[in-house]
């Protein structure tokens, strides 16, 4: 599953499999290399890791993610958020991440765009100036809580408008 993109690009099978094994290890799925990417063989968090590995192995300039962690339990969600931060640090891929979770937006984003529906259009923009190297402890800082509050306040002000 992870090697598919490389084989479609004409990469020799052995090279594609070797690169996919490296990526599978990097996303924390060692020991699951020969499982089909489907539930219940893999959990929801593991399936998200497969999707990230499959996307990254093709070395994209932009990674689009639409509510990828919404159905995960809180521990798995935090783990996946941390994995995504490591992805950004290692691959420098631009990620367009859609979420309704204010805390997740403040934790993962450098730039938050609030959209209004319908029709969808950007109505607010907030630059998040937290250190690039983040872990969940940052969520306890005053600066992080202020960003959460600012995002939430701007969202709520739009409802009244």
Can you walk me through this structure?
- This protein is of the alpha+beta class and 161 residues long.
- The chain is built from six helices and four strands, in the order H-H-H-E-H-E-H-E-E-H.
- The chain has helices at residues 4-8, 13-26, 44-56, 74-91, 102-108, 142-160, and strands at residues 62-66, 94-98, 111-116, 121-127.
- A two-stranded parallel sheet has the order 1-2.
- A hairpin with a 4-residue loop joins strand 3 (111-116) and strand 4 (121-127).
- Helix 5 crosses helix 6.
- The longest helix has 19 residues, at 142-160.
- The model has no long low-confidence stretch (mean pLDDT 89).
Gyration radius, to the nearest Å?
18 Å
Spell the H/E element sequence: HHHEHEHEEH
Largest sheet: 2 strands, parallel
Helical residues, percent: 40-55%
Structure at a glance:
The protein is an alpha+beta fold and 161 residues long. Helix content is 47%, strand content 14%. The chain is built from 6 helices and 4 strands, in the order αααβαβαββα.
């Amino acid at each position: 599953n992870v090697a598919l993109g490389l084989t479609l690009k004409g990469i020799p099978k052995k090279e594609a499999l070797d690169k996919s094994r490296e990526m599978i290890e990097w996303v924390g799925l060692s020991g699951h290399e020969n499982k089909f990417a489907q539930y219940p063989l893999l959990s929801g968090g593991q399936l998200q890791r497969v999707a990230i590995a499959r996307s990254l192995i093709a070395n994209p300039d932009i990674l689009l993610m639409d509510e990828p962690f919404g159905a995960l339990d809180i521990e798995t969600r935090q783990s996946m958020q941390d994995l995504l931060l490591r992805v950004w640090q290692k691959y420098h891929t631009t990620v367009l991440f859609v979420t309704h979770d204010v805390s997740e937006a403040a934790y993962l984003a450098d730039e938050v765009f609030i959209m209004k529906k319908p029709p969808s259009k950007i109505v607010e923009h907030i630059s998040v100036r937290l250190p690039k190297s983040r872990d969940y402890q940052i969520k306890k800082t005053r600066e992080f809580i202020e960003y959460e509050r600012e995002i939430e306040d701007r969202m709520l002000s739009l409802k009244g408008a």
